Amino acid sequence: MQHQKLATIEDVAAIAGVSIATVSRAINEPGKVADETRRRVTEAVARTGYTTNAMARSLRMRRSNMILILAPDVGDPNFSNILVGLETEASKRGYGVLIGNTQNDPARETDYLRFISSNQADGLILFTGHLPYGFGNEGGESRLPAMVAVNEPVSNNDVPFVGVDNFEGARIACEHLISQGHRRIAFIGHSTSKAVNMLREKGYRAALEGAGIIIDPRLILDGDGTTESGRAATEQMFVRDVLPTAFFCVNDATALGVIISLNARKYDLPRQFSVMGFDDISFASFVTPSLTTMKQPRLKIGEEAMDLLLALLAGKTPEKKEILLRSELIVRNSVSRIGRE
């Protein structure tokens, strides 16, 4: 039986018409190679069937070219599109991603960190809003890998953050409601712990104060970002007999709960009540009435976060520790001018 000779990096270099060093760079650091050169190397690799020994390279360089993503809920409607941005940017640079669905369980989170300690992942993307459990204690700061927080900032100031400008987005959302004549605007999503909720509440308050509207504390209700919390908060307002003309919700899921409650009570939306969301998740355009909301640039968030993390892994000092992207006002049918028949 004849054994076919395994292709070597020299074979690839000869077919692509480049040096061995260029082939290595195209495989390991594709972002540093011109598109045409990378294409020729890729075609040569395909023709020869050349494969690199990734495990041996990882042991030699102490690099896995993998990024670990820790997320408390991969079912979050915002997660999937941000993940696409993360994966797209990682792939361009020769990296892959591992996803750890922590389900807010410290034990699961600690378990996933074995990928870092065993050199199976080089850096972390955090959706959790806190440092990984098991890091940062008793001098553990020195053991922290390169990491970037996404969506929820981490209290540790040394961890860069990439996300939407929640304060500015909420301010724009409420200014839109005010421009439609609304003065009694409820906010559902008050929280003393989640940074996103607090920033969006601050934006709500800034918009009302900027318009000279006195804030009624009875119109600010707790909410954990779920559809049920939006429904429950709306029912609570009816029990209190304290009603707004418009609802600004901390996210679209909360807004859906508000709409469900108001529709169940047979109100004509948006003529009798306007509802505003935040995020522009997939169902926002399909609910009745279709939801006016603030659109997050989720793909861009993922791309910026991965670009920042890979810069850290390359030993670069980031120009900014916080990258805030603008959200976009999406006007649909759930908001109308007050008093319009």
Walk me through this protein's architecture.
The structure is a single chain. This protein is an alpha/beta fold and 341 residues long. Helix content is 40%, strand content 15%. The protein has 12 helices and 12 strands. It has a 6-stranded parallel sheet. It is elongated.
% residues in beta strands: 5-15%
Instruction: Give the class from helix and strand content and strand pairing.
Output: alpha/beta
Number of strands: 12
Number of helices: 12
SSE map:
Layout: H1 9-16, H2 20-28, H3 35-48, H4 54-61, E1 66-71, H5 79-92, E2 96-101, H6 106-112, H7 114-117, E3 123-126, E4 146-150, E5 161-164, H8 166-179, E6 185-190, H9 195-210, E7 220-222, H10 227-240, E8 246-249, H11 252-264, E9 274-276, E10 293-295, H12 298-313, E11 322-325, E12 328-330
Parallel strand pairs: 1-2, 1-3, 3-4, 4-5, 5-11, 6-7, 6-8, 8-9
Antiparallel strand pairs: 10-12
Helix pairs in contact: 1-2, 1-3, 2-3, 5-12, 8-9, 10-11
Describe this structure in a few short sentences:
This protein is of the alpha/beta class. It has helices at residues 9-16, 20-28, 35-48, 54-61, 79-92, 106-112, 114-117, 166-179, 195-210, 227-240, 252-264, 298-313; strands at residues 66-71, 96-101, 123-126, 146-150, 161-164, 185-190, 220-222, 246-249, 274-276, 293-295, 322-325, 328-330.
